[in-house]
């Protein structure tokens, strides 16, 4: 992503955070979708820091991933509960919950694959003749 786009996304995400914070204070209720401007800001901040501070960028991306999982889980759980009770529910929240489940499954699969490759590599190194 270009630097200009990342800077623009950071500004838009920050404005969204301010708007959603004001809305949450006014209504007294924080909705799961209110977390997504923060997700945009964290992702853009991570992209801007990638070259200069790679560890900080990884931390921001990890925090954004946690935010996606938490907000999506809350939204999906509410929608699933409404669906199972037979009351009205939001299709967007239900879809978001399903996407979060898939996101978690893909992340777990990548982690298991990485651990498997690491274990295989250490076994190969253990059996390699020392020169």
Number of strands: 0
Taking pLDDT < 50 over at least 5 consecutive residues as the criterion, the unreliable ranges are none
Global shape? flat
Q: Number of helix segments?
A: 4
Radius of gyration in whole Å, from Cα?
Answer: 20 Å
What portion of the residues fall into strands of 2 or more residues? under 5%
**Alpha-carbon distance between the two ends:** 45 Å
Mean pLDDT: 88
Helix content, binned percent: over 70%
Largest sheet: none
Category by helix and strand content: mainly alpha
Give the SSE order as H and E letters: HHHH
Task: Walk me through the topology.
Blueprint (H helix, E strand, L loop, with lengths): L2 H25 L8 H14 L4 H32 L5 H37 L4
Helix pairs in contact: 1-2, 2-3, 3-4
Characteristic terms for this protein:
131 residues, mainly alpha, 4 helices
Protein model, in words:
The chain is an all-alpha fold and 131 residues long. It contains 4 helices and no strands. It has helices spanning 3-27, 36-49, 54-85, 91-127. Helix 1 runs antiparallel to helix 2 (36-49), helix 2 runs antiparallel to helix 3 and helix 3 (54-85) crosses helix 4 (91-127). The longest helix has 37 residues, at 91-127.
